[in-house]
Amino acid sequence: MADHNDLGRKGEAIAKEFLEISGYDILDENWVFGKAEIDLVTYRDKQLIFVEVKTRTGSKFGQPEDFVDDAKQRQMQLAAEEYIHLMDFKGEIRFDILSVLFDGQGRHMLRHIEDAFWPGNNL
Description:
It is globular and about 45 Å long. The protein has a domain at 1-47 and 71-96 and 116-123: Trna Endonuclease, Chain: A, domain 1 (3-Layer(aba) Sandwich), CATH 3.40.1350. It has helices spanning 3-21, 70-87; strands at 25-33, 36-44, 47-56, 92-102, 108-117. The chain is α+β, with helices and mostly antiparallel strands. Helix 2 (70-87) links the parallel strand 3 (47-56) and strand 4. It has a 5-stranded mixed beta sheet with strand order 1-2-3-4-5.
């Protein structure tokens, strides 16, 4: 398996643990609709929260969250709309980003960006 896939899985595991400790209920992981995937679907404080996890080993080309571009946001929105429809959810939603940045010694820094974007808006 490619190293970047392993890194992504490691970042998602860190993000999931962080969210659980922070009181979020994890409803789904790697939920796919068509070509779109949502890394984590969570629930907290009566909100359905769609989470994109971005993991990188350096910030030379930007912070991990910088890579959640307009196309990714649109794909997440499409998947979220289907999830909401299937679950017949009627409450509030939001889109979060969890940024995981590893240094050269294997340590990581996590940044949780709540309400990171609203579909159609940039970060």
